[in-house]
Amino acid sequence: MKPIRLVRNAAAIATMVVAATLSTAASANPFFLFAPFQPLPQAPVERAMPGTDEQAPAHLRRQVVDYRSHEAPGTVIIDTPNTYLYLVLGNGKAMRYGIGVGREGFTWSGTQTISRKAEWPDWTPPAEMIARQPYLPRHMAGGPGNPLGARAMYLGNTIYRIHGTNDPSTIGGRVSSGCIRLTNEDVVDLYSRVNIGSKVVVLPMNARSVAVH
Q1: Average pLDDT, the chain
Q2: Would residue 163 show up in a list of annotated catalytic residues for this protein?
Q3: Spans of all domains in the chain
Q4: pLDDT of residue 140
């Protein structure tokens, strides 16, 4: 019978400790026993990051390259014919990214500025795209399945954007309706380096190769 007595004594001691703890807490805060239950905070849930491709050809991977340009550091240059995006760093250097560009008949050129930035942007296809592809959704909430990917940088008042993609196999191709796409990993990197108001120069398809050595 001694083991049973020991168990009973241990239970009694535990009960006394709990009672003393509640008594102390109640003395400090009379409403302690009536306070609503507060759940423990949960860690934020990170969205999945599809649209990265570690197996991309070496020339399409993000890298710092030698680059000669008269543009100021922070300028984005879209080398449409060679499917590269350059972020001018200055001192003869640029960060180079592989990109996907507009398919035949949908390329364009000119100078714009980044007018807006968005993380996991919603997608509302413009009327021109709906007319060509009436099966497209009229609106799609942002997320891993959204074709705009993880980030978007809107160009002036145009319908064009620099954005991510959930299909990294399209990088290096001519596949879009005029937007410039990067892998999600690369677009997150570029997004962190540019600001609203940054200059974007889009070279035409017949432009000479940019001066890189």
Answers
A1: 81
A2: yes
A3: 2-32, 58-202
A4: 77
